[in-house]
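Quiz preparation item.
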């Protein structure tokens, strides 16, 4: 979807918040309160699993983390509509992952 509809051109300057979620987890409050520098929190995604790219909270694509000019970047691997097979649910939550789980915390 590189070329956009000329009728939509007037919306080209609208700002949209793009986010990428590394993963989620749930922890008992006792463990959250015990977090300190150097703590490691295991998240629900595997290291080779694609990350969800969201625009204003809606999944629009899936990508992989790369390094570019000394910064984290994301390479888009697929657009959200491209990975929906016929008969799939179309849910924004990845298969096997609850959409309403609490966001996780972690150390870089």
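Solution:
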């Amino acid at each position: 979807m590189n070329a956009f509809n000329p009728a939509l051109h007037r919306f080209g300057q609208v700002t949209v918040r793009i986010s990428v979620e590394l993963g989620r987890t749930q922890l008992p409050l006792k463990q959250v309160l015990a977090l300190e520098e150097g703590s490691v929190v295991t998240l629900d995604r595997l290291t080779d699993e694609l990350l969800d790219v969201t625009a204003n909270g809606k999944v629009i694509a899936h990508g992989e983390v790369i390094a570019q000019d000394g910064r984290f970047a994301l390479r888009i691997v697929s657009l959200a509509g491209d990975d929906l097979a016929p008969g799939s649910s179309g849910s924004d939550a990845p298969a096997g992952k609850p959409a309403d789980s609490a966001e996780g915390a972690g150390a870089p």
